[in-house]
Amino acid sequence: MTSSPVSFTPKTSGARAAPATRTRAAQRLPEVNFSDYGDVRCLHLGTEWVQGSMLLDRPYDIELEYVQRMMAWLLFDDPGTAPKKHAMQLGLGAAALTKFCRKKLRMKTTAIEINPQVVSACRFWFKLPPDDAKLLVVLADAGVEVRNPVWTAQVDALQVDLYDHEAAAPVLDSFDFYKDCRNTLTDGGCMTVNLFGEQNQYPDSVEEIAAAFGRDAVWLFKPTKEGNTVVLAQRTPSRPDRATLEARAADIQTRWGLPAQKWLKVFKPLEV
């Protein structure tokens, strides 16, 4: 059954605000609404573009294929080292990544979101838990907040998915921005980025990431059938061999239900 879109009014309880950045942007922010399609609930920013989704009967699983691929940093989490402890999302979307990291992986999780209506939608209709000792939602411009010294070298898994209501190109997509992202990462940390848009700028985006992280730190997925391409960049480059990646993928699939073994068929390092 499909429902008509439902709009939200801002309710910011439970989210820390960054007034200087949020106030300037508030007048330009699109209206947030959602629609149900069968057993899937979709988030929209005033258009037909899907900005995120949730399985109604499994709200803490990840439904969209490209969002699942945003968890590919798990392939670089060596079981022999300390587990990754802090995940950060730039762009909340329907909170799929935030919920998965906090509820399933039990990580300290921080989400940066500029639109208070998105936070309201996630709290009330997408099962985002309230903030607690391990979950923090920050109302801020991601491009500003990522430069906050409090995050320097504090993030193990940075997940970047920043699109406006037109979904034409990433809102933030420059060498300086990706350099700031790199600065948030711990030595063993990884960034994953969703690159999607009507404008054909994917090669340029990859080159900006490579310039900020180093070409030997970048790994690429093939596009999904919807056109989303996930790029991964490591703070400290490594090249695990095929057997290691296959073992880790099997473990990820068994423990977390993510299709990691399929990832290896469409995931490779950037040519140096």
Which percent band covers the strand fraction? Answer: 15-25%
Uncertain parts: 1-14, 18-27
Using only C-alpha atoms, the radius of gyration works out to: 17 Å
User: What is the total tally of β strands?
Assistant: 13
Separate helix tally: 9
Shape: globular
What is the N-to-C order of secondary-structure elements (H for helix, E for strand)? EEHEEEHEHEHEHEHEHEEHHE
Strand order of the largest sheet: 2-8-7-6-9-10-12-11-13
State the helical fraction. 25-40%
Biggest sheet features: 9 strands, mixed
Q: Termini distance?
A: 49 Å
Structural class category: alpha/beta
Arithmetic mean of pLDDT: 86
Keywords:
272 residues; alpha/beta; four-stranded antiparallel sheet; 9 helices; 13 strands; disordered N terminus
Write a structural description.
The chain has helices spanning 19-26, 65-69, 96-104, 116-125, 142-145, 175-184, 202-213, 242-256, 260-263, and strands spanning 6-7, 16-17, 33-37, 40-44, 52-55, 86-90, 108-113, 135-139, 155-160, 185-195, 218-221, 229-234, 267-269. The protein has 272 residues and is of the alpha/beta class. The termini are far apart. Residues 1-14 and 18-27 have low confidence and may be disordered.
Q: Helices, strands, pairings?
A:
Blueprint: E1 6-7, E2 16-17, H1 19-26, E3 33-37, E4 40-44, E5 52-55, H2 65-69, E6 86-90, H3 96-104, E7 108-113, H4 116-125, E8 135-139, H5 142-145, E9 155-160, H6 175-184, E10 185-195, H7 202-213, E11 218-221, E12 229-234, H8 242-256, H9 260-263, E13 267-269
Parallel strand pairs: 2-8, 6-7, 6-9, 7-8, 9-10
Antiparallel strand pairs: 1-3, 3-4, 4-5, 10-12, 11-12, 11-13
